[in-house]
Amino acid sequence: MINNAEGTNDQDWEYRPLRLPPGITRRNAATQLSIHAEFSGWELSRVLLYSDGTRKVWLRRRRTTPGVPELLT
Long-range contacts made by residues 34-42, C-beta under 8 angstroms, separation at least 24? Predict the structure, then answer.
């Protein structure tokens, strides 16, 4: 599937689903997601808020291809 807004293929992204329990405030949820973004390179892709207050969040980041290892000389 191609995302027309960005012109990229879904295979270019890796996704990580998270579940945030109902007792987590919006501010605490934002803090947790900011930590994932800052230290692991994730960005927010989608959020679903359920009637019981549970949030299901999908984070995404670009897939990286493994680099060529350094040659020992």
Answer: 42/16
